[in-house]
Amino acid sequence: KGIFPADGDVIDSVRPVITAKILDDVVPKSIRLQLGNHLTKVEWDPKTRSVTHPVDADLAQGGHILSLLAKDTQGQSRIYNWYFRIKHKRFEKAGEQKELGYEAVQN
Fold it and tell me: Element (H or E) spanning 93, and its range?
């Protein structure tokens, strides 16, 4: 709830719009979103209490780790980590097992 892609999601898009809702009262300038080892630029919407990051370059197929860091108005730091995967295109279509050497094993 409130996070896309959610923890454990497998998605098709290589350029997702990452969103996260923050329920605590946070200091907007303290919000950081890290995608893998890269710190990203985020947009904070105080009305919806949401952080948004539209990914502007294709992400690799496979797994990605996100870390959301923020400091609340009481000075407490919070961090939330989660993981999602981008579906491997070669596994999507039936009959593409040839590419992976599947046909040779079956014959």
Answer: none
**What is the C-alpha separation between 17 and 88, in angstroms, rounded?**
19
By C-alpha distance, which of 58, 27, 49 is closest to 35?
58
pTM of this prediction?
0.79
Written as tens digits, the pLDDT of the chain (107 aa) is: 699 999 999 999 999 999 999 999 999 999 999 999 999 999 999 999 999 999 999 999 999 999 999 999 999 999 999 999 999 877 655 444 444 444 444 43
